[in-house]
């Protein structure tokens, strides 16, 4: 069996990434599973343009959107290995690598976008970002990913019992897997890139995500029932390879930190507009959306929340996050 490091090296060599990112001074590379035009890709593009402007063209950004560099697991590996400079992934993809991220993925822990912003803009967000340092990454910025809701090919989901017997795709994270299982679903872990095909071949009955991913990854073409469960507001993280970051001058490091921080409000604005238009587009296409019994869903995960927040780090983060609700 080949090692993960060897597999990543092969992927990097095959795409010419290693040569291009290490060989050409000033050229920075980035990986994202979303397509060009998606708010995360656009926010990082904006950051790249700021860097180019600030350095009179010395720093430039080449993006690899649409999962060209593989699933989120792969791009995080490439960044840790120094073969790509930036990897933008969802918190779900790093729940095991950086356990502090779990707190913002746990079901019914965040109540609204405003609550999420209060948490990520506080010392909680700073602490979670700093925790990436331990695993060879710099946590540059936390971006919005909206409220995740279930969608499926069969029927409206109003209460947890409606999930019974449904095969629901879960992100590759035990936090999500266990949450969906206690809510009553039959969870199937799968990278997001495989969801459209899994829906078309009936490997799964449904998935859960935000309006933009539902629309832009065309999941709505198969799964025509959308249920407003808003069970998680799991945000996105823009990471940078620590190896590549430390190889830069302190001036460039500052420029990158600053441009990444300034890309957050840009992202938030793009996100709000993109979400609205995604929602309008899918509703126009005939998606049937329904409200869900959120208190019943919240009750179904009460024991799980207790178990998941047993460690001192998560217990304290969870209390601090909950204290910002309201
Ligand atoms: C989307 C995130 C993306 C994740 C995906 C998922 O933007 O980073 O890969 O969810 O469900 O909302 O895996």
CATH uppermost class of the largest domain: Alpha Beta
Low-confidence stretches: none
The small-molecule ligands in this entry are: beta-D-glucopyranuronic acid
Oligomer: single chain
Number of strands: 11
Structural class: alpha/beta
SSE string, helices as H and strands as E: HHEHEHEHHEEEHEHEHEEHHEHHH
As for the CATH topology of the largest domain, it is D-Maltodextrin-Binding Protein, domain 2
The overall average pLDDT, rounded, is: 95
Q: Which range does the strand content fall in?
A: 15-25%
Query: In this structure, how is the largest beta sheet organized?
Result: 5 strands, mixed
The coarse overall form would be globular
- Main-sheet strand order equals 2-1-3-10-4
- How many domains? The number is 2
Kindly provide the radius of gyration, computed on alpha-carbon positions and rounded to a whole number of angstroms: 19 Å
Counting DSSP H or I runs of 4 or more residues, the number of helices is: 14
Distance between the termini: 51 Å
Tell me what you see in this structure:
The protein is an alpha/beta fold. It folds into two domains: 4-145 and 234-277, Bacterial extracellular solute-binding protein, family 7 (D-Maltodextrin-Binding Protein, domain 2); 148-232 and 287-323, 3-Layer(aba) Sandwich (D-Maltodextrin-Binding Protein, domain 2). It has helices spanning 4-14, 17-23, 39-54, 72-81, 113-120, 123-131, 174-183, 195-200, 211-216, 242-246, 250-284, 294-300, 302-308, 312-323, and strands at residues 27-31, 60-64, 86-90, 137-143, 148-152, 167-170, 186-189, 206-209, 225-232, 236-241, 288-291. The strands form three sheets. Strands 2-1-3-10-4 form a five-stranded mixed β-sheet, sandwiched between helices. The protein has a four-stranded mixed β-sheet with strand order 8-5-9-11. Helix 7 (174-183) links the parallel strand 6 and strand 7. The mean pLDDT is 95. Residues 33, 72, 89-90, 92, 145, 171, 192, 209-210, 213, 236 line the site of beta-D-glucopyranuronic acid.
